[in-house]
Automatic annotation (TrEMBL):
Keyword Cytoplasm: no
Naturally occurring in which organism (per UniProt): Flammeovirga aprica JL-4
LysM domain span: 390-434
Matches recorded under SMART domains: LysM
Signal sequence segment: 1-23
Name of this protein: Transglycosylase SLT domain-containing protein
Record keywords: Signal
Stored Pfam families: LysM, SLT
């Protein structure tokens, strides 16, 4: 028995040491850089955490090359959908972190997270993806990337920083807020990475640095061409392209059957060599269909909302205040102060020094010489004309003025969206829409 164990260990060691390693034993990553609109500073403790993951990603040349090939194949589509929706392109490395760019990736969670961006079914459906017996768009790189971009864009609206939005992709929006408050983070002026930084962010930075200088260097890798279409079978697509059906099917694992449904235009991915692209595009053009691309203004039009009961959404900024009577915060994505004791309008205006009495009253719908109340938020910049929530059902005792303050939306815009000329037009039970 001891001999068998010894022999087994020798075999394992021989397998391990015959795996080729990347010839880069002394990598030096920058300790200060700009990323996604933030200045990032990495402490020694933070660098040690990043390097541990970096080394695991780059240890095997074979494994690294497989991931790099996937990056070159899928990143063009992921980056396109991110940038179209105002999300930094660098988030494409988050998809690599989530699934290793394996459309078939399934987590151990209940219910499981699936696909390129690891969406659970209910979250994917909120973001417009189709999931049924024949289609699972979580496994479609274009559809899943649109959903991820929408999710990140919405959360960035409330959190005001892309690194916070990244944390929310792992913890959820409320979870990210709790993490920020618990750890007293302030990423608005500088993102400091240390050994206590959220592991999700540390792992992201390891993926980012491990691949960013290698992606796109190989001009001869296999590429995918997107055919937006519906109403055909994969067998027909095989005839259009002259490619074997099994190759077509392997690049479209989101479709469990052969027929592409007609309920919407789907992204069918076709394999091609770089020198075949123009010829193949010409072949496919007659079968392509126009897809209605969601405009940026339509990103937030989802009727399921994960923080509907958490308004106003208050995020402390941990910015030092010169006055002990209030704290600065981001409330519903808008700069605000939260009073720790009662103040007059004149006191607050004088202390802030950056806002007039007229603007304070306008942004907060204050009438006359009303006192400003303790534990109440007051906006110090203009409210937006639409927000990432679909509607609120008006309850007894609520007014449009109250709803505008609670959710952080311009009152006149709110009336216009809901086709109301005056506040009294709103009745109990009405759905008050925000976009």
């Amino acid at each position: 028995m001891k001999t068998s164990k010894k022999l087994f260990c020798i075999i394992l060691l021989s397998i391990f040491f015959t795996q080729p390693l990347l010839a880069n034993p002394e990598v030096s990553l920058p300790s200060s850089f700009n990323l996604m609109g933030s200045k990032v500073v990495v402490t020694q403790g933070g660098m040690e955490k990043i390097m541990a993951k970096y080394n695991s990603l780059t240890r095997s040349q074979k494994h690294y090359d497989i991931l790099l090939e996937r990056c070159n194949t899928y990143f063009p589509y992921i980056a396109r959908e991110l940038q179209t929706r105002g999300v930094p392109e660098e988030f494409k490395y988050l998809a690599l972190q989530e699934s290793l760019l394996d459309g078939n990736a399934i987590s151990n969670a209940t219910p499981p997270a699936v696909g390129f961006w690891q969406f659970k079914d209910f979250t994917a459906e909120e973001r417009g993806m189709i999931i049924n017996r024949t289609v699972d768009e979580r496994k479609n790189v274009v559809a899943a990337s649109i959903g991820a971009a929408d999710y990140l864009s919405k959360n960035h609206y409330y959190l005001g920083n892309w690194f916070y939005a990244m944390i929310s992709y792992h913890d959820g929006l409320t979870g990210a807020k709790n993490h920020i408050k618990k750890n007293k983070l302030n990423y608005y002026s500088q993102v400091t990475i240390n050994e206590k930084t959220h592991p999700y962010v540390l792992h992201y930075l390891a993926h980012y640095f491990a691949f960013k200088d290698k992606v796109g260097k190989d001009q001869n890798h296999m590429v995918l061409i997107e055919l937006p279409t519906s109403g055909y079978s994969l067998s027909q697509v095989s005839k259009f392209t002259g490619q074997p059906l099994n190759i077509i099917s392997s690049n479209n694992i989101w479709l469990s059957g052969s027929y592409i449904p007609e309920d919407k235009v789907y992204s069918v991915m076709i394999e091609a060599k770089p020198d075949e692209i123009n010829q193949l595009v010409a072949k496919l053009s007659p079968y392509a269909k126009t897809r209605k691309t969601r405009a940026r203004s339509a990103i937030f039009q989802f009727y399921a909302d994960s923080i509907q009961d958490d308004y106003p959404f208050v995020l402390p900024t941990h910015t030092e205040s010169d006055n002990s009577k209030y704290d600065f915060a981001i409330v519903n994505g808008v700069k605000a102060v939260i009073l720790k004791e009662e103040m007059t309008q004149k006191e607050l205006i004088k202390s802030l020094g950056s806002i007039s009495k007229g603007k304070l009253k306008k942004y907060n719908y204050i009438k006359g010489k009303d006192k400003l109340l303790k534990d109440t938020h007051y906006y110090i910049e203009p409210l937006p004309t639409s927000i990432p929530v679909s509607y609120h059902v008006l309850k007894e005792g609520e007014s449009l003025n109250y709803i505008a303050i609670k959710y952080g939306i311009d009152l006149n815009a709110l009336k216009k969206i809901n086709e109301m000329s005056k506040e009294s037009d709103a009745k109990v039970g009405d759905k008050i829409y925000f976009n």
